[in-house]
Amino acid sequence: MALFATLLNAGIFLLAAPLTMGLLQRSKARLQARQGPGLLQPYRDLMKLWTTHPPELAVPSVVFVVAPYVALFCYTFAGALLPVVFMNESGNAWPGLAGGDLVLLIYLLGLATFALGLGGMDSGAPFGHMGSSRSMFVHVIVEPGLILSLAALALYWNTTDSASIVTQTQELGFVGILAHPALLLIGFSLIILTLAEAGRLPFDNPATHLELTMSEHAVGIEYAGRHWAAVKLAEMLRTLLLLTLLIDLFVPGFVTPLQTLGPAVLAVVLYLTKLSVAILLLAGWELLQGQFQLRAAIRPASLAIGLAASSIALTFINHTFLGGH
């Protein structure tokens, strides 16, 4: 049953990724009084691309071909580290498997970004090099804040195990989270870092078609066919992963052991409901934003680092002098 819960978590995560992007695109279109694409359009696009044979390019090496699939594996693996909907009865992050925590999550995010950056540089296209450089720049300024935020979270809950943190968060409740300044600071920091890491406005414009303003999309500008499908699916999984991380950690819900059908269905429905609300908020946010100049991204990244560091200081004072959360 525990291994089945692991596979079910991974299956829900993979299937929900295109739906997340479809709902985001549809929501932005509706808020702009446009018809917009259908919710299932990302599924159709991926199916079409997977069946298309990519052209052979003279310049790239095997790095160019392997990079999208390395990123895809990393994001899928990272999604399995989180108790998306189900966890095992012992509360471990990996139902039925050993290991996995927030530290490994950071390494997987970094490896995926690094792999796609190498793929863009290996394409031999000037815009691929430019996009990889921009992507690496944003990742370098965001990575310290992400490390500090997850370190603050681990320090607050005295564990790096994601399922244990989710369990304690559910016991604390949403009102309890609002009453703890350290958790609020971590939450605000992770919101900023999620926008940057996922390549959303104002850090990057995923809807742009102008190469000079591209960052993430310029990395895969030379990909086509199934390779481009792997890049697109990896981007969808990355966005869903970061949104799920925020939902799990700061919007306590019905994450439960997989036992009976009724609670299992309720857990899936509640997860999709929370995810839909997060996507609607993201769509509304992006309609009010313009894209940063590249150097301007340093300011919000620095703010995220400051918020995480402040949370660590508050948690240390609380644990040292007050003896608890």
Can you walk me through this structure?
The chain has 11 helices and no strands. The protein is mainly α and 325 residues long.
Tally the beta strands.
Answer: 0
Strand content: under 5%
Order of helices and strands: HHHHHHHHHHH
Largest sheet: none
Radius of gyration: 20 Å
- Which parts are unreliable, with pLDDT below 50 for 5 consecutive residues or more? 93-99
End-to-end separation in angstroms reads 34 Å
Short description:
This protein has 325 residues and is mostly helical. 70% of the residues lie in helices and 0% in strands.
Task: Present the secondary structure layout.
Blueprint (H helix, E strand, L loop, with lengths): L1 H30 L9 H10 L11 H20 L20 H21 L3 H32 L4 H17 L2 H17 L18 H4 L5 H26 L10 H27 L10 H25 L3
Helix pairs in contact: 1-3, 1-9, 1-10, 2-9, 3-4, 3-9, 4-5, 5-7, 5-11, 7-9, 7-11
Give the tags.
325 residues, mainly alpha, 11 helices, globular
